[in-house]
Amino acid sequence: MHALRNPAHAYRRVDFDARVAGADPRELVLVCYDQLCSALALALHANTRSDNQAKSEALTRALAAIAALQLGIDPAAQMAAVLGQLYAGARRTLLDSVINFDPGAVARLSQDMAEIAQALRGNE
Fold this sequence. Notes:
mainly alpha; 6 helices; about 120 residues; about 85% helix; about 0% strand
């Protein structure tokens, strides 16, 4: 029902489902990064408009993307501990921003995550 009221949400959901359906594990990680970066951009934009509902929804989406990234860490991987620390720090930044939104911290997190996603894409 909600998707029928907001075409942008419906389109985003269809796009997300299509990307996930045929993705390999590496592509799923990129989908999570894309969702995270998009959500952070939306949160920053919503903040400039003083739209607390949109900001809250965007932060919730960002936290879901971080949770998916955390769950996807292979404990046997060489970078597992580093990734765990990175995602835990990102999660803390987001949770802190739920209570007291810090646009600077969210913008830095967005930039960091975009750089990581770009580096992952550079290996394609």
